[in-house]
């Protein structure tokens, strides 16, 4: 990932329909980011200032990055994925320049969704890292994000962290990440939806039952479920190769995959903090 500090996609091809479950989170993003972007004159009429960002937090693999990319799709915007760790890693002074260049690039080519992954690397409580370079990087970020200091029209800001308690309170003031949104592990209905999304367009046997698998996968993240489907698909491909007859993905493949792919969110929920 180090070589990919900045990953930019022309216009994101993914929309909210590609994200299973998370209806409340989608609703918040629509209210805070998509509608202000689409209806600026309505917001102006109601004297409702647009701007600021949404900070997503929750266990790994539950759709934070996917949601950010889908937000870009909903706004027909470019998607730029910024690895905060890679920015922070630079020499003193260089990190500030890099960060400012990222914002300048976004303003030049709007609409753009800027997605800051692992924000805690930048926004770690200042009391813990009182170093001068860190303070200056935080202040660069907050200034760039500030809609008074800059014209950020068409620059849509999302960030993600697995450790929201490690994010400096300065980031959560109005006009900044004033919305902190939990992205939970999928519940049973969401798991069924995610499984159907990942099974779609594959050769499937009639006995494939996403609801039955959803019932057996409490604690699985979206990424775990994707992994489960891929594991089942690999076995179907192997069977096809050895028999010479196309073996569709069947329920037994999915059930077998359950033994191999274990859930990962419970560990985060119990050990984080
Ligand atoms: P991390 O904290 O590790 O960065 P994340 O929350 O950003 O994790 P994603 O990168 O969005 O997780 O998810 C990884 C992959 O898992 C996605 O690309 C997608 O294939 C699948 N996935 C996760 N959540 C969902 C979901 N709600 N619907 C459909 N697919 C999902």
UniProtKB/TrEMBL annotation:
Q: Name one GO molecular function term.
A: ATP hydrolysis activity
- Asked if Coiled coil is a keyword of the record, the answer is yes
Query: Where does the AAA+ ATPase domain start and stop, copy by copy?
Result: 50-187
Domain of life the protein comes from: Bacteria
Does the record bear Transcription regulation in its keywords?
no
Task: Please give the coiled-coil regions recorded for this protein.
Answer: none
Kindly state which keywords UniProt assigns to this record, in alphabetical order. Answer: ATP-binding, Coiled coil, Nucleotide-binding
Q: Which family does it belong to?
A: Belongs to the AAA ATPase family.
Q: What is the protein name stated in its UniProt record?
A: AAA family ATPase
Q: Which organism is it from?
A: Croceibacterium xixiisoli
Q: Which residues of the full protein are shown?
A: 158 to 430 of 454
């Amino acid at each position: 990932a180090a070589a990919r500090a900045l990953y930019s996609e022309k216009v994101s091809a993914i929309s909210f329909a590609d994200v299973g479950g998370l209806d409340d989170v989608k609703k918040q993003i629509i209210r805070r980011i998509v509608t202000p972007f689409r209806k600026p004159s309505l917001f102006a009429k109601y004297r409702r200032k647009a701007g600021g960002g949404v900070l997503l937090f929750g266990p790994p693999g539950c759709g934070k990055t996917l949601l950010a990319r889908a937000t870009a799709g909903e706004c027909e915007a470019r998607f730029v994925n910024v690895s905060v760790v890679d920015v922070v890693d630079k020499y003193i002074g260089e990190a500030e320049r890099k960060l400012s260049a990222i914002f300048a690039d976004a303003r030049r080519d709007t609409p753009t969704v800027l997605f800051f992954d692992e924000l805690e690397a930048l926004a770690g409580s200042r009391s813990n890292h009182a170093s001068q370079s860190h303070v200056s990087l935080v202040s660069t970020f907050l200034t760039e994000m500030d809609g008074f200091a800059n014209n950020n029209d068409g620059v849509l800001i999302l960030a993600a962290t697995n450790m929201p308690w490690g994010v400096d309170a300065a980031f959560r003031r109005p006009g900044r990440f004033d919305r902190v949104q939990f992205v939970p592990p999928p519940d049973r209905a969401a798991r069924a939806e995610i499984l159907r999304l990942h099974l779609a367009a594959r050769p499937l046997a009639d006995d494939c039952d996403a609801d039955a698998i959803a019932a057996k996968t409490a604690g699985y993240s979206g990424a775990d479920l994707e992994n489960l489907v891929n594991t089942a698909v690999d076995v179907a491909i192997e069977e096809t190769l050895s028999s010479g007859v196309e073996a569709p993905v069947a329920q037994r493949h999915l059930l077998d995959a359950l033994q191999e792919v274990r859930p990962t969110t419970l560990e985060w929920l119990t050990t984080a903090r």
